[in-house]
């Protein structure tokens, strides 16, 4: 499903069914719920662009906190950026599949 940084800045593939995979899916669902419960128009492309920017910045902020806490180093940033790139590409494909599935469910297979 994606990659995550583990000990000493190494990247590790997350496979379906892994504990990390389940955690990531649960976090994604909570984020979707938070967006759906907001007062922002989640069909507006400008709002969705802001959401994408905010989530990328939040990821960087979390990694910066890991550096200060001693769990990662500035030298790990290259691998972190590589994992973000891979996860973003994976997320795009997941998003396309999810959107098609939701359209099909809403329109009875006529999406």
What can you see in these coordinates?
The mean pLDDT is 86. The longest helix has 30 residues, at 77-106. The chain is mostly helical and 111 residues long. The chain is built from 3 helices and 2 strands, in the order ββααα. The protein is globular and about 50 Å long. It has a two-stranded antiparallel sheet with strand order 1-2. A hairpin with a 3-residue loop joins strand 1 and strand 2 (10-14).
Observed structural traits:
111 residues, mainly alpha, two-stranded antiparallel sheet, 3 helices, 2 strands, 65% helix, 9% strand
**Separate helix tally:** 3
Mean pLDDT: 86
Overall shape: it is globular
DSSP summary, beta strand count: 2
Q: What is the rounded distance between the termini?
A: 25 Å
Tell me the strand percentage band: 5-15%
**Fraction of helical residues:** 55-70%
Structural class: mainly alpha
Read across the widest sheet, the strand sequence of neighbours is 1-2
Poorly predicted residue ranges: none
Helix/strand order, N-terminal first: EEHHH
Biggest sheet descriptor: 2 strands, antiparallel
Which value, in Å, is the CA radius of gyration? 16 Å
Q: How is this fold's topology laid out?
A:
Blueprint: E1 2-6, E2 10-14, H1 19-36, H2 45-68, H3 77-106
Antiparallel strand pairs: 1-2
